[in-house]
User: Fold this.
Amino acid sequence: MKNFDEQMKKRAAEITSVIRGYLPEAETLSARDGAVDEFQNTLLDAMNYSMLVGGKKLRPLLMQQTYVMFGGTSNAIRPFMAAIEMIHTHSLIHDDLPALDDDEYRRGKKTTHVVYGEAMAILAGDALLNLAYETAVKAFAEAPGDPNVARALEILTRKTGAYGMLGGQSVDVEYAGRPLTDEQLSFIYGLKTGALIESSMMIGAVLAGASDKEVEQIERAAHCVGMAFQIQDDILDVTGREEELGKPVNSDEKNQKTTWVTVHGLDEARETVEQYSKEAVRLLGDLPYENEFLDELILNLIHRTM
Assistant:
């Protein structure tokens, strides 16, 4: 696709603008009695800092482009786009904490706990997770009477909780420092990383009116994207440069984490990324819809170098 990088920047900027519309404005926050309530401004500042520090907004972009591919036109997608990025950012804030990965940089900027302190970072992550669901339910007002909004909300809550992203993170933490089988690694990757990508693309399909069979196929394709994305992340942790990635390299070794690279080596890890990416493209190609930008986006994020 011509000018993909330019289109990517333009779309990311548009999505950031959408997300801004759902974030708190500390200086104008009002209490129920109408008085200006400034006491929790530090929390709100920390939330906004974490959300707007940068990033490509890949998950809301995947959601939006899947929605477009299935012919979606409603504004009901907008609250969900903001919500998925809030949930993702919540997970990053908590991942960076001293109790977990203890990272000082994220997207080239100081992490939330470094800037605001550990306690405020925990609260900012919690607040963003709650705000995500508060934001998502606003889709009911955008599409009154549409049963697909409730279906999308069910996917969002299921894929991000104990049986989704958080469940994967818990196993990742519990098994740190232990040798892992491919089955165990696949379980962690499929939930910790894959669940949010699956949620993003499935919600886009559901809100656009895709059939159950089509949503299932999107889920399988998104699972392959998530697996390839995480294994590529493992590769970049070994081969990448900190100034390009915007975060520390060799953090997996520092945190004694078993990864696809430590188990299989770089060459086999690269082959596995290629296998998952080809399967994702095949599954999307079998659908009777087209979105050239979505295809290019998936290949780009799977084979990214930063």
Summary: The chain is about 70% helix and 0% strand. Confidence is low (pLDDT under 50) at residues 28-36. Residues 173 and 289 are 39 Å apart (CA to CA).
